[in-house]
Amino acid sequence: MSSSWRNWSGLESASGLQPVSPADAAEVADVVTRARAAGRTVKAAGTGHSFTGIAAPQHVHLLPDRMRGIVAVDRDAMTVTALAGTQLKVFNAELEQLGLSLHNMGDIAEQTLAGAVSTGTHGTGGRAAGLAAQVVGFELVTGAGEVLRASTAENADLLDLGRVGLGALGVLTTLTFAVEPLFLLRAEEQPMSWDDAMAAFDDLTAAHDHVDMYWFPHSDRMLTKRNTRVGTDLTAAEPLARWRAWLDDDLLSNTVFGAQTALLNRVPRAIPAANRFASRLLGPRTYTDVAHRVFTTDRRVVFREMEYAVPRAAGLDALRECRTAFERSGLAVSFPVEIRVAPADDVAMSTSFGRDSFYLAFHTHRGADHSAYFALMEAIMRDHDGRPHWGKLHHLEAGDLADRYPRFGEFTALRDRLDPDRVLTNPYLDRVLGA
Fold this sequence. Notes:
The chain is an alpha+beta fold. The protein has helices at residues 25-38, 88-97, 113-118, 156-162, 194-207, 242-264, 271-281, 291-295, 315-329, 371-383, 398-404, 408-418, 427-433; strands spanning 5-6, 13-14, 18-20, 42-44, 60-62, 70-74, 79-83, 100-101, 135-141, 147-150, 171-178, 180-181, 184-193, 210-215, 221-229, 285-290, 303-311, 337-342, 357-365, 387-388. Helices cover 33% and strands 24% of the residues. The strands form five sheets. Strands 16-13-15-14-18-19-17-20 form an eight-stranded antiparallel β-sheet, sandwiched between helices. It has a five-stranded antiparallel β-sheet with strand order 6-7-11-9-10. A three-stranded parallel β-sheet has the order 3-5-4, with helices on one face. A hairpin with a 4-residue loop joins β6 and β7. α9 packs antiparallel against α10 (371-383) and α11 crosses α13. The protein is globular. The protein starts with a strand and ends with a helix. Residues 12-182 form the FAD-binding PCMH-type domain. Pfam families: ALO (PF04030), FAD_binding_4 (PF01565).
């Protein structure tokens, strides 16, 4: 086992670690208890798909490799329990074999369940956009080494406050999700002009279950993706032909796009023309497949990302301000801006807590300097009472975040109770929650 760690984007790393692969909650509790006695910290870092240092270990690094897979299925309650180190892509495939599905999910499935839930990973649209809003129970090991189970019937306050726990309340060992019968989604992808997409946005989000849009900087073009539920009759599936999926999603979206953006880092003056050309090549496509194959995509081009959730009512105005500021800045950016929406939820530390939300995600290639671009966009997001994604780059601190989350004080009080000695902390958590 390696004594070093590095996240996917390459922005966070650590060395001189003590790697441990626990198999269950009892082993996790033993590790935490020993670390607490020695004055050391413990972090569970899985695939490293967070761009921030939220999971960065400093001393003891808990690895997920022995805590994977589904452990319980309750078809009466329609819930499934899995070990917290299970990757989303594995969980989705195992659910499919059971004829079950999550209601909604994000577009990347590399993360562990613990990491995705703890950082507030979300999709777009639907009754529940965030993974955490689909969590009905979990088990964790506190910073004091105590194993706690949370559900509506047991430690309900922990379930209430801890579904997006940031890794600050305990080490998750199992998660229980509300599921539903496996269903199909019809995906309709269509390029549109900026003006047409902006004018149609509200109607599209009202008419379809899930809507995702991508604006290409330096251009007047957007790609829209509308996903509509079409039932549970799997014989009605009409997936993309293998050759089309390979061409669009493997060759063009990964291999060609990766090579193009890496090259453009060397000649940034060519980015505007390249973006306008690429956006004009986009064509429509429609297909129907099981939900997780429509929701998620394979992303092999390494990038950096910042994402904020602003109130839904302010979203289109915020997007227009971002475009205006960007075009005045003289910056060159080769990656599109992703636009999504989410319904309000009751998850205390969710970016959609208590309000319908409009998400704006800004990306750059890993080889490009993201700092000026993200700072420009972040100022606009803050002006609109934006809440940053916990696993994506931002500069907010505890004081800023306390103003944005009505239950922030309750959450930090629970942290004080469950991890009084800060066994589970690291510099990122000290910044966003207070030391």
